[in-house]
Amino acid sequence: MDGTAKFIDITVIEREVTMFKGMKKIIVLGCILAIVVGVVNIFSDDKGKTAEAAGVEEMRGVWIASVYNIDFPSKTGLTPTQMKQEIDDILHNVKAMNGNAVFFQVRPVADALYPSKIFPWSAYLTGTQGVAVADDFDPLQYMIDEGKKQGIAVHAWINPYKVTRGTAAKPNHDLTALAANNPVRLYPDIVVAHPNGELYLDPGQPKSRFLVLEGIKELLLNYDLAGIHFDDYFYPDKVAQKDSNGKIVGYSDFNDEQTFIQYGQGFTNKDDWRRNNVDQLVKDTQTLIKSVKPDVQFGISPAGVWANQTTNPLGSATRGGVETYYDHYADTRKWAQEGWIDYIAPQIYWHIGFSTADYDTLARWWSDVVKDSDTKLYIGHAAYKVGDTAQNAAWQDPDELIKQVQLNRQLGNVDGSIFYGYSVIKNNTMGVRDRLSVIFAE
Questions:
Q1: What percent of the chain has pLDDT over 70?
Q2: Which residue from 227, 185, 270, 165 is spatially nearest to 7, judged by alpha carbons?
Q3: pLDDT by residue (tens digit) across 165-222?
């Protein structure tokens, strides 16, 4: 397999959009799957099955972030030998904490940490988007192969909508800076420049959803994965606008008004339309995965607060600054209760007793959300806060994470944990890796 990105022909899906214009659901799911899944039956063999995918164990996972070279690779331009050593070290450290899964960020933006015919090679590997790794080295395949030897399952973590990373002060809105074969350069009409300095696929554009699904199909057909994983990035947060005195005078919203006019028939409320767009991606992803490789798990790790109780009576007794239902147009509660995902892993990145968003309160709220569903609940923990003196004093207690795991087990509906902050586990900060190893051996 070479690394040349070659985007699919989307004229078929554009005809479908025209045919169904004026209907609430722009693309009929069956039409998508006829295009996306294609040769499903050929691949419905045992190749896609993994021991962890059945979900029989307590989840004990670690996120491995590639964006900004946070975890892997540690810097751009590493040789294949150096990258292999870093992957070996990652698996060794996860195994040392008695972990059984890694969530490997293989699509941080519209790129890939594996050879793809759709997305260009990631700049986080070689320093330049579109430039292949030496010797045809495939980091994802190596992670899977070596993980199997140690009983560690690999989930492919992707960011479905992000195209670039940037900030309001240093925006990254230049499409021409991306690799020439990046699909968003071929179809710039599906990209929105947001005031936060980043480019996004427009979730309301049917072609955006089709592109995401094509990328997932490619991963399913080419790799023996335990799962496909989305994190908390859907629609971006609004950006505060301030006057010369620093006072907030308004917020800049996502610029999708023309898309709403074109595809929002049947919706009088843009917020509901946006939520429906994300709903469609989630449902179509689950249907695709179960059609191609039924044993592969599909899960999402949203921000920890669906909605505050003061905003929505169904919400949690919290005062979280971000509410996924309203800020990201992600109805994560519904996805879990409707069974559109195999597991949900809310990022409850606060300590037990935190008055604004108490870990205990949120763990119980999410436990209640999934109690009558088949959706598993894994909780995302803030390992990165352990030992950080800039954080609340609770994070200077090396047993904070241990207490959280113990609480999870007491609740009954929590099926495991995923930890963000691999470097803390790698460095065994405050002995956290050793402590997790002990509790996960119980």
A1: 87
A2: 185
A3: 999 999 999 999 999 999 999 999 999 999 999 999 999 999 999 999 999 999 999 9
Tokens 């579109």 appear where? 130
The domain total for the chain is 1
CATH number at residue 30: 3.20.20.80
Helix (H, G, I), strand (E, B) or coil at 102: strand
Tell me how far apart the alpha carbons of residues 376 and 397 are, in angstroms, rounded to a whole number: 29
Domain range for 230 is 11-440
- Rounded to the nearest 5 degrees, what angle is found at the Cα of 145, between the Cα atoms of 343 and 220? 50
Cα 134 to the chain's mean position, in Å?
27
Neighbour tally for 348: CB within 10 Å: 26
Cα separation, 331 vs 325, whole angstroms: 5
Q: 3-state DSSP call for residue 192?
A: strand
Computed on alpha carbons and rounded to an integer, the radius of gyration of the chain in Å comes to: 21
Q: Is residue 304 scored above 50 in pLDDT?
A: yes
Residue 57 domain flag: yes
Cα separation, 51 vs 36, in Å, equals: 27
Report DSSP letters for 33-57, one per residue: HHHHT-SGGGG-SGGG--TGGG--S
* Within a domain: 310: yes
Q: Are 108 and 72 in contact (CB under 8 A)?
A: no
Q: Is 242 exposed, middle or buried (0-12, 13-18, 19+ CB in 10 A)?
A: exposed
Q: Tell me the CA distances in angstroms from 54 to 226, 283, 300, 341, 416, one per residue in order.
A: 9, 20, 17, 14, 14
Please tell me the predicted confidence (pLDDT) of residue 249. 75
Would you put residue 133 in left (φ > 0), alpha (ψ -120 to 50) or beta?
Answer: beta
Is 5 a member of any domain? no
CA distance 229 to 210: 17
Residue 1 included in any domain: no
Angle at 400 between CA 396 and CA 406, to 5 degrees: 170
- Alpha-carbon distance of 427 to 325, in angstroms, equals 36
- Lookup: tokens for 227: 């799962």
Of 229-243, 280-294, 405-419, the range with the lowest mean pLDDT is: 229-243
The mean pLDDT value for 333-339 works out to 97
